[in-house]
Amino acid sequence: MIPPEANLKGAQLSGENLTLLCADEIDFRNAVLCGTTLSLAVLGKARFDGARLDDAILDNASIAEGSLVSTSLHRIKGRHLDLNHAKCSNACFDGADLRHLQASNTDFSGARIRLTRLAESQLAAANLASADLTGTTWPRSHGFASSSGLLPVNPRIAGLIGHSGWILACAFSPDGKRIVTAGDDSTARLWDADSGKEIRRFEGHSGWILACAFSPDGKRIVTAGYDSTARLWDADSGKEIRRFEGHSGGILACAFSPDGKRIVTAGDDSTARLWDADSGIEFFARSAAGSSWLSWSLNENRWDGEGELTEWLRYEDDSELPTGEPNWVTRHWLAADLPELRSLTPLS
User: Fold this and answer.
1) Helix (H/G/I), strand (E/B), else coil: 329
2) Which residues contact 50 (CB under 8 A, 6 or more apart)?
């Protein structure tokens, strides 16, 4: 039992369950409460200055008139959190879920509130003018425009928060309801496009994942990366179906054929390779000396019949134009006999 006005300055309380804590004017300055559960806590006029609450859960908690100056609150879950009249200057709320936040007359001057969800919040007279709101959304929130001088926008989600590093590729499902992302944390992740919730995680690559794509029917996902492999996944179960190995360097791009039966990959080993999606058999590898293959685009109008492939590459030898800019070249190759894929003939 923690009494009101208790002095817990600098306390180490990470991961503790403090649900329903009632302690007005408690002193948590410089305390560490990372991952701590404070749901339904009543902490009026509490002092959290300089504290760390990263990944804490504060759903339905009240810190009205509290002080959170320079407090770290990365990725907190604070739905229905009451911060009315609180001092939150220079605090960091990056990646937080603050839907239904109550923050009337709250001071957010200098705060970082990036990629934060503020849907249906009460922000009347809040001081947000100098806050960093990059990537943050506030659909159906009240008082934002008048308190910040900015006009609200209404995208469907605030951000996809979960990768531990850079996101290097992304793609929508054919129906637009899901998004797949790939990152330098060696994972690909599937998200609900409406809520931003992570649905599934695809793990198996041993390096950066540089490319990802949905099959035309949305049932499968292909990923490719620096470990020189491309992998086929079941979008519903997250199970790895097949692995495509043959590149001698990182794979920079991947794509399905319009019928979903073939996959093409392009790598920094200066080759592009065409694979059978069902069996994993490599049909062919096309090389171009002195170049790095960056991306492939398949011509849907020509695939069923003549099977045109469009190759985009950058020459690394003598690749600069007189202006010093990279020299980008487009070439077209025609699979003369697509079912067997024995040879490629340059198009004129």
Assistant:
1) strand
2) 29, 30, 69, 70, 71
CA distance 28 to 214: 48
Measured between alpha carbons, how far is 210 from 250 in angstroms, rounded to an integer?
Answer: 9
What's the pLDDT score for residue 250? 92
| Side chain identity, residue 250 | G
Q: Are 251 and 244 in contact (CB under 8 A)?
A: no
22 vs 51: CA distance, rounded Å: 19
Residue pair 82/102 in contact by the 8 Å Cβ criterion: yes
pLDDT band at 142 (very low <50, low <70, confident <90, very high): low
pTM for the whole structure: 0.51
Name the CA radius of gyration of the chain, rounded. Answer: 26
Residues 26-35 as b/e (b if ≥16 CB within 10 A, e otherwise) read: bbbbbbbbbb
Computed from CA positions of residues 164, 168, 174, 176, in that sequence, does the dihedral angle turn out positive or negative? positive
- Report how far apart, in Å, the C-alpha atoms of 205 and of each of 123, 208, 223, 289 are: 43, 8, 9, 27
125: number of Cβ within 10 Å? 12
The predicted structure's pLDDT at residue 73: 96
CA-to-CA dists, residue 97 to 2, 21, 76, 136, 147, angstroms: 27, 21, 6, 10, 20
Tens of pLDDT, residues 216-271: 999 999 999 999 999 999 999 999 999 999 999 999 889 888 888 889 888 888 78
